[in-house]
Write a structure and sequence with these properties.
The protein is α/β, with parallel strands linked by helices and 354 residues long. The protein has two domains: 2-107 and 299-352, ornithine cyclodeaminase, domain 1; 128-295, NAD(P)-binding Rossmann-like Domain (Rossmann fold), CATH 3.40.50. Helices cover 31% and strands 24% of the residues. The chain has ten helices and 18 strands. It has helices at 7-17, 19-35, 106-124, 141-152, 164-173, 188-192, 237-242, 250-256, 271-275, 297-313; strands at residues 2-5, 46-49, 54-61, 65-73, 87-93, 99-104, 131-135, 156-160, 181-184, 197-200, 207-211, 221-224, 233-235, 244-247, 269-270, 289-292, 318-320, 350-352. Strands 2-3-4-5-6-1-17-18 form an eight-stranded mixed β-sheet. Strands 9-8-7-10-12-16-14-15 form an eight-stranded parallel β-sheet. It has a two-stranded parallel ribbon with strand order 11-13. Helix 2 crosses helix 10 and helix 3 crosses helix 4 (141-152). It starts with a strand and ends with a strand.
Amino acid sequence: MTRFVDVPTMSRLVEHIGISRFIGELADAIRDDFIDWLAFDKSPRVANHSEIGVIELMPVSNAQRYAFKYVNGHPKNTQRGLYTVMAFGVLADVETGYPVLLSELTVATALRTCATSLMAARALARPDSRRMALIGNGAQSEFQALAFHYHLGIQEVVVFDVDPLATEKFIRNLAGHPSLKIIRAASIADAVRGADIVTTVTADKTYATIITPEMIEPGMHINGVGGDCPGKTELHADVLRAGKVFVEYEPQTRIEGDIQQMPADFPTVDLWRVLAGQIVGRDDREQITIFDSVGFALEDYSVLRYINEQAEAGNLGVGIELVPWGEDDDDNDPKDLFRYTRSSRSRKSVRRIA
């Protein structure tokens, strides 16, 4: 049977583990898989674009497991009371091709995105960073703030969003974390001033310049999360020229990241090489480091692997017959698919996993 984890089950899983522990353990899982980079069969995501959004498939595999995520990005969905980004994913056994997990990935993607940001910042930001500017206070913002507060020592988050209701939502949701000081800024420039880390998580599908060169200060680490498809940027080109740029999977980032506005020979550094200890990340305290994050399928593999392990340990989720499993039927014949045209020949479609 395939384990099925829906949104309510994911909520129970996060609550059971605790959001801080979940983010920390997931960041470690992603780091471990990035260090094992060469063992994976990788490719850029397959994207179908429209004027108002994008729908994508993100596959990756190693010798044991195959994973993919279905994900969309529709910035105008919020005007209809819908979420901008929604996702689900599958983890399958490479030896047989059978799916072992079908999971919601909307909530989990937010967790894996902040965990990836944390993983990169641990390797690139100054270790004594205490103040972060958070530009964009939408669906991803709380996750980013908690990841950096509990696992990187950020004590102050200065927030700004063009929508004041988004900022109010952010402050309200984090009221239960009094050890994190939240400061509301009047502008992007005001928020960025004096920050050790600048995180941008805006959603508009447009060539934007959220961060401009005059905002940059020596030693900053820029965590560019919002630019993640063709025609969508957040950083001015001169900001990229001023720093050392790190990427997840360079062929994909060239298409979707902030470096899409740069020439093809613009230099970047593979983050996995830094994590594996092959090359240095930050050269000195004054250097500007930039993580041009777009989200890569290996991170979804990691979160699906982690969800499967934790759901199994916590006995969460239900078993569904997503594909014919028939192996424990007394009269099983793997060449007889026609029997599934009769409902009496198919087992109960959903059951609790023991």
